[in-house]
Write a structure and sequence with these properties.
Length: 515
């Protein structure tokens, strides 16, 4: 039934368009006969042909051209009122008919082009309206959700993909000091002078890839004070999957960070007191251990002198005293050797270490200090880095000491970048090189070896033991620790580790592949 209705409507439209062609030509003929019956007015016929092609298409236009040609031959060319024609008029009729066909084709093509253009414009406007409606719906949804979040005391705001604030809740106004009407429309990172733990490009890449990001940020309030916040970003997408907005939630952890810093400072001071106490106990232990053989040496020496000073020297007794002196001196030497072995802690638990994981652990341990000092960190660990043989705690202690020293070296840099680079890459002869590079105050040539000497320090509060202990640890692992100066600011301290254990100490890492 529906198909028959469509066919009927199509047939009706065809009849109307072709009927329009006939009526248009008839109207043109009637107008010409009424206005100028003795003169042919061809523009009127061309107008009828154009109207037929415009409203009906090429078919009705060609029909109108044919009918107009026949009407001109019948009414205006001799013999009049007859379809017979004089051969002399054939060129004129042929020119008129071809012109009529061209006019019909041009009119139909223009009508079709305008129709296509109108359809494309309508489709584009429909898509724009649909896109606008989607964005409006997304914004309305976000605004409704944000209105609910306005009840919380947490800091919540919404920003678009240009980081311009579109929503600012009551908690944000109370935390930072800017009211909603002042903050909306501002670039959030510029308004809060945000300090990021990593380059913003990397953070945005993770946000676009996973849809969320978490980390610690430093924000500056309206009164100029800084706050540390635990920040969570969530990416909002539309129905087509395009990112449209970012919801950021921040919790103030400034007091917690201050408590952590106070605890860390207390631990540092406690470690310093422990080291001083240990040195005092060590000095007392050495004095106690050495005092007995030294006293025996003095006693035996005095006795020997008395036996040699008599009128008849007691050579046997003097010889025995000298032997006792030698024995006591050897005993004192053994005590020193034992104490040195204790200090060196020769018994270590070495195993296979993943340096890339160890570097990540050190970065996590120092992340807060890196952010607090405004340092930019870059980690360059080779993908083909082999495992190394060593004691995990000791190697971590060495790398942690170098990183903290680099951060402290850049603390006094007032101008210029503060960049810290940690590198780990394979070296020749079965070793791995680990380097810590900074842009701090640098070192003079005479300091390159002196800094590894015990109790030598360039820091006002330093003990000068860190690098000395680090060199001892690295050398116990079969490597070398040295400093390299820069032509510009900063310095590099690097050390090597073996990729094979000492002979008889262990075997290589187990293979996970089948034989």
């Amino acid at each position: 039934m529906l198909k028959s209705d469509r066919l009927a409507r199509r047939a009706c439209a065809t009849v109307l368009t072709y009927g329009l062609a006939c009526v248009s030509v008839a109207g043109a003929l009637l107008v010409t006969l009424l206005v100028r019956p003795d003169e042919l007015v061809t523009p009127v016929f061309f107008l009828a042909i154009m109207l037929s092609a415009w409203f009906g298409g090429i078919g009705p236009g060609l029909l109108a051209a044919l009918l107009a040609t026949l009407a001109i031959d019948y009414c205006f060319l001799p013999p009049l009122y007859s379809l017979l024609f004089d051969p002399a008029n054939v060129p004129h009729l042929l020119v008129f008919f071809l012109s009529a066909v061209l006019v019909s084709s041009w009119s139909a093509a223009r009508k079709r082009a305008e129709s296509l253009l109108r359809r494309a414009r309508d489709e584009q406007e429909a898509k724009v309206q649909e896109r606008t409606a989607d964005l409006h719906q997304v914004n309305e949804t976000l605004r409704e959700r944000a209105d609910l979040l306005d009840l919380t005391h947490d800091t919540v705001f919404v920003r678009d993909m240009r980081d311009v604030n579109t929503y600012w809740n009551r908690g944000a106004a109370e935390r930072y000091g800017w009211q909603k009407e002042e903050a909306v429309g501002q670039v959030s990172h510029d308004l809060l002078r945000t300090i990021f733990p990593a380059p913003l490009e990397e953070i945005n890449a993770e946000l676009l890839g996973t849809g969320r990001w978490e980390g610690e940020l430093v924000h500056t309030k309206r009164d100029g004070t800084q706050v540390v916040v635990a920040s969570r970003w969530s990416l909002q997408r539309d129905e087509q999957g395009n990112p449209v907005a970012i919801l950021e939630t921040n919790n103030d952890i400034t007091e917690r960070k201050r408590a952590e810093e106070a605890l860390q400072k207390a631990q540092t001071e406690l470690a310093h007191v422990t080291r001083v106490t240990t040195l005092g106990e060590l000095a007392t232990s050495i004095a106690h251990e050495i005092n007995q053989p030294l006293a025996a040496i003095v006693t035996n020496g005095s006795a020997g002198l008395r036996w040699l000073a008599g009128a008849a020297p007691h050579l046997d007794d003097a010889r025995e005293a000298l032997q006792c002196i030698i024995d006591d001196a050897q005993r004192a030497s053994a005590i020193i050797t034992r104490i040195r072995a204790l200090l060196r802690k020769t018994a270590t638990e070495k195993t296979w270490l993943d340096l890339s994981q160890l570097v990540r652990e050190v970065v996590r341990l120092t992340q807060h200090e890196i952010v607090r000092q405004g340092v930019t960190l870059r980690v360059e660990v080779a993908a083909d880095l082999p495992p190394v043989w060593g004691d995990r705690v000791q190697v971590q202690q060495v790398l942690l000491n170098l990183v903290l020293n680099a951060i402290e070296a850049m603390a006094g840099v007032a101008q210029g970048p503060r960049e810290l680079v940690i590198q780990a890459r394979p070296e020749a002869a079965g070793t791995v090189l680990v380097a810590v590079e900074d842009t701090g105050v640098g070192m003079a040539q005479e300091q390159l070896e002196a800094i590894f000497t015990a109790f030598y320090t360039t820091k006002a509060q330093g003990l000068g033991m860190g690098l000395a202990i680090s060199r001892t640890i690295v050398e116990q692992h079969g490597g070398q620790l040295r400093a390299v100066p820069h032509d510009g600011p900063g310095a590099t301290v690097q050390f090597t580790l073996r990729t094979a254990p000492e002979e008889g100490a262990g075997q290589g890492p187990k293979s996970t592949s089948g034989s």
